[in-house]
Amino acid sequence: MLKKILAGAVCIASLLTFTACSDNTANSSADENFTSVDNVPTKDIQGNIDEVKLEKGDTYAVITVKDYGDITVKLFKDAAPYGVQNFIDCAEKGYYKGTTFHRIVEDFMVQGGIPAGADDDAEYEEFGIETNYKARHFYGAFCYANAMAQNSTQFYIVNNKESQDLSQLSTATMDNYAQTYEQLASQYDKGSDEEKYYTFQAQYYKNMKDFIQNADEATIAKYKEVGGVPSLDGNYTVFGQTVDGFDVLDKISEVEVQANEMMGGQEISDPVEDVIIENIVIKTFEG
To answer: How far apart are CA 203 and CA 280, in angstroms?
Structure first.
């Protein structure tokens, strides 16, 4: 079970990302891709472990999907300040208009945020991930896809409603993966591309283990209740939570898909018919 989940996790990590829209991004070096949990304090951060609802003054996004309807997402400014500001800037500049959900995997996630005709080799700014024990990959979580722990514009929404038992995720297996990658990294010169890659992979599994081990009773209970993808915790920025339009998310998740060339043709996730994002509007909840 763990290998199946990890395969999906690595697929997200391998996707290319594109130009960040915000001028207020935090650029990270290769050794600083992973933002320490200590750098995003957990105190007074709402996150999505408790019930998430819109309250007066909250910032939220309305994602209008052609022929499907609206998905409303509350944004977590305190848990992911860089990520939220970047998303707001992208939306307000019209970056997402006419883009598609280009990758849809039932019981995993739906991913979007690439403009038609985007140049894979374009210069772009990136910013490191922001993680927090209180912001988790529950059903409906709104998150950044990344490449080697660097965010930019692509996002995904977790669509898995199957109950998740965190005790079934073996931390010993995560240790084995981390140790294997550390051994591989040691075979290459410090600073080489190979050494950086394997060091990154080792850190990936260490982060996953950290978040599994630091899941409190409320987190464990919610994963069992609502589902999600807990194996992604610690390695991707969760910067919002769906509060309305779950029926739209479910309908999108059920569309017919085919081999996805963006994933090397190995994953059946490319919608046969385009699922188009007409617009994303940022609003403040008036109560």
So the answer is: 34
